[in-house]
Specification:
Layout lengths: L3 H15 L13 H10 L3 H11 L6 H34 L5 E3 L1 H4 L14 E4 L5 H10 L3 E2 L9 E5 L6 E4 L5 H4 L5 H9 L2 E5 L2 E5 L2 H19 L3 H13 L5 H10 L3 H15 L12 H13 L9 H9 L12
Parallel strand pairs: 2-5
Antiparallel strand pairs: 1-2, 3-4, 4-5, 6-7
Helix pairs in contact: 1-3, 3-4, 9-10, 9-11, 10-12, 12-13
């Protein structure tokens, strides 16, 4: 079951999504220190800062709010460096006629009222297989160092430079060692043919269309769900994507997820978004068992976060509840 702090976090996130005032917040009934810790576990500390300051405005909350604000300012400062790095890299690739797509953190941040409030741990870029070697050379020419050989990770390589963001350069978006072979050829072609322009700070970037970003969010969530710990922020950002685009092609999403063998898991996540974030995703692409949807959110908040990932036995027991829902043979 969800506790009152977790219910409040969902309510506050919904206020940000729907611009709806919360009818009543009994702040005296909430342990703000515990609220702060919960937001860290679920990756929404900076996201919720503005609305928390709005409701917890009594001087008795000043100490924790000062700590919370300091955290936000640190993220803002770090993100300013990240966005400067991605701007320089984008210019470098354009100058050399190499295409790249920015996705996940950098791309999703555009949906936030303040893009600098979206926590980022690295910069994710996608390049085409034919541009892989040239892309590496360009980044290395700028002083970045490749940390491992190309085949160390099946999806990407990391490139680092002191005082700069970690660059996670992808040529694949599915971890074949975790989930086995998936037929990605058609999806990858669509990603590149249907990419969009996005302007930020007077620079034009390539980003995925909303449909492909949603598909990638599901795949990314699935990997964390099984292996590394997932966060409420990932579901919130799926809801943000849906809210930001009223013309989503759900038939394309359904067909692509089915081809990639992620449709069942996608339906479950979309159902959770409908139930808790009022996204109004069509019935044709949601899982209709409300009890299971509510159980999934409870498990996500209480058992499947990073704080629990060392409890292998407990984690495995929770995952077993979803074996009959998530019919992707290599995933669970």
């Amino acid at each position: 079951n969800m506790n009152k702090t977790q219910h409040l976090i969902i309510d506050l996130l919904n206020q940000l999504l729907n611009n709806k005032e919360i009818s009543e917040v009994n702040v005296s009934d909430i342990d703000i220190e515990n609220l702060y810790k919960e937001t860290i576990y679920h990756g929404v500390t900076t996201t919720l800062h503005p609305v928390v300051c709005k409701y917890f405005n009594d001087p008795i909350f000043n100490n924790i709010l000062l700590k919370w604000t300091a955290q936000v300012l640190n993220v803002n400062k770090k993100n300013a460096l990240f966005l400067k790095d991605i701007k320089n890299i984008n210019c470098l690739f354009k100058k050399n006629n190499v295409q790249m797509i920015v996705f996940k953190g950098i791309a999703i941040s555009r949906l936030y009222e303040n893009p600098y409030n979206r926590f980022m741990s690295d910069i994710d870029i996608l390049v085409q297989e034919d541009d892989w070697e040239e892309s590496k050379k360009l980044l290395i020419s700028e002083g970045f160092i490749q940390t491992n050989h190309d085949d160390y990770h099946p999806m990407h390589i990391n490139l680092i430079k002191k005082g700069h963001a970690i660059i996670e350069m992808h040529r694949h978006l599915i971890h074949k060692n975790y989930v086995g072979y998936r037929n990605t050829e058609k999806w990858y072609k669509h990603i590149w043919s249907d990419k969009h322009d996005y302007e930020f700070d007077k620079e034009i970037y390539n980003i995925m269309c909303s449909e492909d970003e949603l598909i990638n969010q599901i795949i990314h969530f699935a990997t964390h769900f099984v292996y590394e710990g997932c966060k409420l922020s990932q579901l919130f950002e799926m809801a943000l994507l849906v809210h930001s685009n009223t013309n989503i092609d759900w038939y394309y999403i359904s067909d692509t997820l089915e081809t990639l063998n992620y449709l069942c898991f996608g339906k479950l996540l979309f159902s959770v978004c409908n139930e808790f974030f009022n996204t109004r995703i069509p019935d044709s692409i949601v899982y209709k068992n409300k009890k299971t949807v509510q159980l999934f959110m409870s498990d996500l908040l209480n058992s499947l976060t990073e704080k629990n990932k060392d409890d292998f036995k407990g984690w495995t027991n929770i995952l077993s509840n979803y074996r009959n829902i998530i019919r992707t043979p290599y995933l669970l």
